[in-house]
Amino acid sequence: xxxxxxxxxxxxSGLVLFPLALTIAGILWLRGRAADALLVSGGLFGAFVLVHxxxxxxxxxxxxxxxxxxxxxxxxxxxxxxxxxxxAFALACAMALxxxxxxxxxxxxxxxxxxxxxLVGISRVYLQVHYVSDVVAGAVLGAAWVLTLHxxxxxxxxxx
Length: 160
Description:
The chain has 160 residues and is an all-alpha fold. Helix content is 72%, strand content 0%.
């Protein structure tokens, strides 16, 4: 399980998510889906800014553990940035990518992205670099930001 969760945790890393979000947003933009492109890129970028601002505000120390499976990140613990980013990315992509597909394809998209975000959160606790509350707060923050952004985009363009 160690290797599995070490790998899963990378799905919440900005090094993975930012290039992926920009690629997906670029494709959506080129297909004339500007609002969806903004949801995907703005969802991840906004979540990144919010979570790192809140980390500094709360300044919660990470768990004090010995025999870590990974090196302990140097920033603060609350909320989990990996979980916030993975949740924001997954929700924004699910909303954007399932909009014009069949019900079956939409369920597959939502299921895969939800499972990925869930595994990222679990991996952060498994790897002992976060408390459960860090991960829960990160998931709530990521989802709340994307839902807020979606509402703003819908307000700006009622056809969205």
